[in-house]
């Protein structure tokens, strides 16, 4: 309100002067026009002074301006003081953030939209070897590792990447992204050396034990086959016992083979190795062999509707990919009615090429879906054992797909059926 009162008073003063001059000289409107021109010139002069002060950042302190411009400078000065108070408050918060992140055991690295280093904490110096000279440098130049480079180029950053520390090859770091605005994102590196060693020990133990069990199991199977050949159906109890023992031995053999395969796949997933063994895999030919030849699933092949809509091939391991297709198709057969159909599709999609198996069985409850790829996880334990499954099929599928830059997508509705699919990216197609 003071601003407008001052503006009105200033205008009236100029008009009063024009009125007094016109009393002596006449021509009121001419003098009023001259007075308004002088007022306008004064305003432009004050505006130029304000622009100059804004340009030189010299708003601090009071101005000698009067009238309307006194209030302009008054309000600008108040805004300036509030801005300084906000800066001080943000500065304190920033210092607290620096102090808190400096004590974190995990390396914290702030990157801009171009993945250039903007800031890092003390742990990043120790674990990653960052220095002040690295500020403004692309993170991939400082940490030159193919796994991290591949991780940075992904659209989906919800997963993690585990690599060795650039400053200590005996230390393993798990990198994870946290995006907190459109221009900056936080890269965290956690020391997971102990966890990595325990995982390696577990995998080696499972692989070694599984390998050692092969020999005694082979001996047991050999004797069972001999006993079955000698059996002349004299005792129904012995005949049934031999049959049950043979079934369980076969189940144990399958479990051992799956454990050994899973251990190998986990090793490839972690190291991203075996690249020299990649092949051009003709998926359509494999699916035709599995679904149409009558050798693999016979007599169940009549249930399968195979749809081949793409001739694209995949760069990868043929044996591993075949295990994916076999596992998913067999699962669909096991957990759907014997008379229901199973749709198997191989088709091109915008992101690459897609493999899908659709069954029309009982479906899977929503709370089970996210756990299906865990080792030995079963929705219905009794039914799974009755069907002869090892509980490792989908875990194997998960690791094979991870090694081929894909992942298993599961959708299901109880009473309607389930769909298991995966999309191989264009970079894997040939």
Q: Tell me the strand order in the biggest sheet.
A: 2-1-5-4-3
- What's the architecture of the largest domain in CATH terms? 2-Layer Sandwich
Low-confidence sequence ranges: none
CATH class of the largest domain: Alpha Beta
Per CATH, the superfamily of the largest domain is Histidine kinase-like ATPase, C-terminal domain
- Give the biggest sheet: 5 strands, antiparallel
- Radius of gyration (Å): 38 Å
Termini separation:
75 Å
Shape designation: elongated
- Average pLDDT score: 78
Q: Secondary-structure element order, as H and E?
A: HHHEEHHHEEEHHEHEEHEEHHHEE
Which percent range fits the helix content?
40-55%
How many structural domains does the protein architecture include? 4
Tally of DSSP helical segments: 13
Q: Tell me the β content.
A: 15-25%
The fold-level CATH name of the largest domain is: Heat Shock Protein 90
Total strand segments: 12
